[in-house]
Amino acid sequence: MLTIHHLGVSQSDRIVWLMEELGLPYELVWHTRGPDGAAPASYLALHPAATAPVVQDGERMLSESAAIVEHICHTHAGGRLTVAPGAPNHYDYVYWMHFNNNILGLFFAKLALAGQTEGPIAGFIQRREDGYARHLEQTLSQRPYLTGDDFTAADLMSHYCLRSPRMLGARDDLPHARAYVARISRRPAYVRAMKIAGAEARPPEDARRA
Q: At residue 206, does pLDDT exceed 80?
C-alpha cells in the first residue's frame, strides 16, 4: 500500500485526490507545520529534496508531484488518467502535466521581487504569466478539459495553481478557466480528498502522525 506523507496546506493534497479518483488504497501520515509555517524536521528527513509531496512506495520515497502522479497512474492503475504516446492529444497531455510548475516558478519569482511591479524583470515575469493565462483560456474555450473531452491527470496537476489566489486564481480575465475550476472542484473524488487532506482539513483523532 502506498503511504502519502501529508504536509498540511501543500501540494500533497493532490496525491490524495489522485488516489481517490483511482480508487486505490493508501495510508495517510500527517506532518504538522511549525508556528512559522515551515515543514517539520520529520518531513524534511523523508527525501533529500525536502519538498511536498512525498509518497512511499515499498522501499522508495518518491518526490515531485508530476513524477509521482505518472508513477502511480502507470505502476498501480494501468495507465488510467493518462494519455498514451500514440494518441493525437499526447503532446497536450505532456504540456499541461508540466503547466503547474511553470506557474509555480513565476510565483516564486514574484515572491523574490517582494511586490515590485516595475522594471525589466517584473515585466518579463508578467508577460510570461499573461502568455500562459492566454493559452489556458483559449484552450478551455474550445474543450471541456485541458487535453480534450476526458478528465486526465493533467487536469489534476493544473488545478492547484488555478485555484490558488496567490497564482492564476487571482486573475479576473479567465472566465473559462474559472468555470472549469468550479466544475472539476465538484468531482466527488476531489470533494472527498479536500475533506481528508485539504487546506481546512484536520487530522482525525486516530490519524497516524509523524
A: no
Q: Are 147 and 83 in contact (CB under 8 A)?
A: yes
The class level of CATH for 2-81+190-209 reads: alpha beta
Helix (H) or strand (E) holding 2: strand 2-7
Does an H or E element contain 108, and which?
helix 99-113
pTM of the model: 0.95
Condensed to tens digits (0 to 9), the pLDDT of residues 169-197 reads 999 999 999 999 999 999 999 999 999 99
- What are all long-range contacts of 106-114, with beta carbons under 8 Å and residues at least 24 apart? 106/132, 106/167, 107/161, 107/166, 107/167
Cβ atoms of 184 and 151 within 8 Å: the answer is yes
Q: Centre a 10 Å sphere on the Cβ of residue 25 and count the other Cβ atoms it contains.
A: 9
**Distance between first and last Cα of the chain:** 18
* Strand order across the 60-63 sheet: 60-63, 54-57, 2-7, 26-31, 208-209
Domain with CATH 3.40.30.10 in the chain: 2-81+190-209
Q: What is the domain class of 90-187 according to CATH?
A: mainly alpha
